[in-house]
Specification:
With about 675 residues, the protein is of the alpha+beta class. The chain is built from 26 helices and 15 strands. Bound molecules: zinc ion.
């Protein structure tokens, strides 16, 4: 389950300036409005869907219903993230839409910002730091506002009074200690009791681990292990642990029924028979909740590579569960970007060469790397845990045995990264944090290219490389598994992006282009990703821990030779790389160690590595980075609005065309989704 997507691998790319070549091909889109909204630490962007018009009518119809299915599970994620989220969102929306007091007051403005944050986090916690949002409006204002709107507009449940509702919400919104963190990864604490997520109720970490270990131990030598616990909530009632399964007839039924309804519609327009098989398996899974069926679905999904259109829809990634067992609901609908896919096909075609030459212990190399498909996609809809914050690459399925036997599908979402790049053209970031014009120029020239290539190498080869010793599973590394796995994939990419093979394969133009990626990676890992951490906090999120781990480790190892150093100029700190070739060797050395930890399931080594290099923050540097970043007035996090797809129908209701529009703003989109796709009960 730890093999997967990388939300924000491309922090660096967010600040990358486009090359002249990119500018040429995108000249016609210069007047497109990429930046849509800005609040708190968030900027909302818009992405384009190039070439949608050139799809066939059938493909557009197929996409249209898959898009609808992608939006139908929205409420599931809110409830998974925290049991009060839907109630909070609906109450805030009711105030926003019906408040008759002074809408120009500071309190109302603060409530609007808070609501925008809740939409961005799919709940009351930050999507990335997992910290609870701090309301900047007063409790009195909130209570008065709730009391002053029509009761029927509030999410009151079973005769609940407004006072009772407020009693709950006042605690949830204003008590800073209550539900403080969505996913707590702090070493030593009970990870479930200290996390606000809604995957477990009244269950301790030990009880949950015990519960699932017992199931696993019944079949210790299972060669096709089921992803136990993936699609359920674990609840303790009267001292008995039970799983509440997510399926039609079970928990989240109404939303799942809508998803299935739209999948049925989509199926009529599938491009080939295999796509129909995939949809049937998924519907079967949504109906029965049988995890064996889920694996069968994953296998059929991996096999389907012939069509232009593809999708992810379901309980997929486990980052939201501190134990990494339970999956959040997400969806992405997309079609193939043919030109850009050629780049990743080249990488995949040479997968075995990369594996055979990898700087790891030869006994951990895969004799045969197979089943890697790689493509660049154009996203048409983001849903669930991929919205508004989205990954820029996805590698699925997560079950190791399926990946080993059937391979995986790996995609990079180029219309999303393009939106990042375009929006950051004039950010001022490079001017503030890059050491000199040398770094600025090399990143300007090659940054976009190398950052796409890094993503491709990470997704297509990095996660797929290496093998585990027999009896070892990804679960051995427990809470450190995600960080170690991301480090493994990143290091694989960092090591190879500097290889002369890149020039041989025509992926990079020369032997120094890779330096753009090295510079942005090191600067980000050592310094600038700290813009995402609040003062006095540690690094929690797996991808950030991974980047800090890599950057700090090579920094320390290279100290005696001064490979990378911090330099000061006018009281400001800069990252300077003095020896790029030696830096590459250090990435290789670390990859050797990380692969060994993974292959042998060495929990203690993983823990030591992550805790020593990936968690702690240099407070002085942190404060400086925050100050400089603040002065740039940039939002460290980005979210997206989706385009609006409209089905044009004839008098019989048949779709004759699907049009696309980019005019909807963030608030209108969220309110529309809450109106049209709000399928789960009021106070769940
Ligand atoms: Zn990854």
């Amino acid at each position: 389950m730890k093999y997967k997507f990388l939300p924000m691998l491309m922090i660096a790319s967010m600040f990358v300036v486009l090359t002249s070549c990119d500018k040429k091909t995108k000249a016609s889109t210069d007047d497109f409005q990429y930046s849509v909204d800005k609040f708190a630490d968030i900027e909302i962007l818009r992405y384009q869907v190039p070439d949608f018009e050139s799809l066939t009518l059938q493909q557009k119809q197929y996409i249209y219903y898959l898009n609808e299915a992608a939006l139908s599970g929205r409420d599931i994620l809110y409830d998974q993230n925290c049991r009060y989220n839907l109630c909070v969102r609906r109450t805030l929306e009711a105030i926003y839409e019906n408040y008759s007091g002074n809408r120009n007051s500071n309190d109302f403005a603060a409530l609007t910002t808070y609501l925008k944050q809740v939409w961005m986090g799919n709940g009351i916690h930050h999507h990335y730091s997992y910290d609870k949002f701090t309301p900047e409006f007063s409790q009195k204002f909130f209570n008065d506002a709730v009391k002053n709107i029509d009761k029927n507009r509030l999410p009151l449940e079973n005769g609940q009074t407004v006072d009772k509702l407020l009693e709950v919400l006042d605690k949830v919104i204003f008590d800073a200690e209550f539900l403080k963190k969505r996913v707590n990864q702090a070493d030593g604490a009970d990870l479930l009791l200290t996390s606000a997520q809604n995957y477990y109720e009244n269950v301790t970490e030990a009880e949950a681990e015990n519960f699932y270990n017992k199931i696993k131990n019944k079949n210790p030598n299972e060669t096709q292990p089921i992803s136990y616990g993936l699609n359920s909530k674990l609840v303790k009632e009267n001292d008995i642990l039970t799983e509440k399964l997510w399926h039609i007839g079970g928990m989240y039924s109404v939303a799942i029924e809508k998803i299935v309804f739209n999948l049925e519609k989509a199926k009529q327009f599938a491009e080939n028979e295999q796509q129909k098989v995939v949809i049937d398996k998924l519907i079967d899974f949504y109906t029965t909740a049988n995890l064996k069926t889920f694996d069968e679905y994953c296998i059929e999904w991996v096999k389907e590579t012939a069509g232009m259109v593809d999708f992810i829809n379901g309980f997929t990634e486990v980052y939201g569960d501190p134990l990494g067992i339970k999956a959040s609901w997400e969806s992405v609908v997309n079609f193939k970007n043919i030109a850009a896919t050629k780049r990743t096909e080249t990488i995949s075609a040479n997968a075995q060469w990369f594996e055979d030459n990898s700087p790891i212990d030869p006994k951990f190399r895969k004799e045969e790397v197979k089943g890697i498909t790689a493509k660049v996609i154009t996203v048409t809809m983001l849903g669930g845990d991929c919205y508004p914050s989205t990954p820029i690459g996805i590698n699925l399925p997560n079950a190791n045995w399926i990946r080993a036997q059937y391979g995986s599908k790996s995609v990079t979402m180029e219309n999303i990264t393009e939106a990042y790049d375009r929006a950051s053209l004039n950010s001022g970031f490079a001017g503030e944090f890059y050491w000199s014009d040398y770094e600025r120029n090399i990143v300007k020239e090659y940054g976009s290219l190398t950052s796409n290539l890094h993503t491709d190498l990470h997704e297509c080869l990095g996660h797929a490389s290496g093998k585990l010793m027999s009896g070892i599973s990804k679960d051995n590394l427990k809470a450190y598994g995600s960080t170690i796995e991301e480090a493994r994939a990143d290091l694989f990419a960092l090591y190879y992006i500097a290889d002369h093979k890149m020039i041989e394969l025509n992926l990079l133009p020369n032997d120094s282009a890779y330096k753009a990626e090295y510079y942005t990676y090191m600067m980000n890992g050592l310094m600038t990703q700290l813009t995402r951490i609040l003062p006095d906090n540690n690094i929690e999120e797996a991808h950030m821990r991974n980047r800090a781990l890599i950057a700090n480790w090579v920094f320390e190892r290279g100290k005696t030779d001064n490979v990378v150093e911090f330099k000061e100029k006018d009281g400001k700190t800069y990252v300077v790389i003095n020896d790029y070739a030696r830096l590459r060797n250090l990435f290789g050395e670390l990859l050797y160690q990380i692969q060994t930890i993974t292959s042998t399931g060495d929990y203690q080594a993983a823990r030591q590595m992550v805790e020593q290099y990936g968690v702690k923050v240099n407070k002085t540097l942190h404060a400086e980075v925050l100050k400089r970043y603040k002065e740039l007035n940039l939002a460290p996090y980005k979210g997206f609005v989706n385009p609006v797809f409209t089905a044009i129908t004839d008098k019989n209701g048949n779709i004759t065309d699907v049009t696309i529009s980019y005019s909807e703003n963030y608030v209108d989109q969220q309110l529309r989704y809450s109106k049209d796709y709000s399928f789960l009960g009021k106070n769940m």
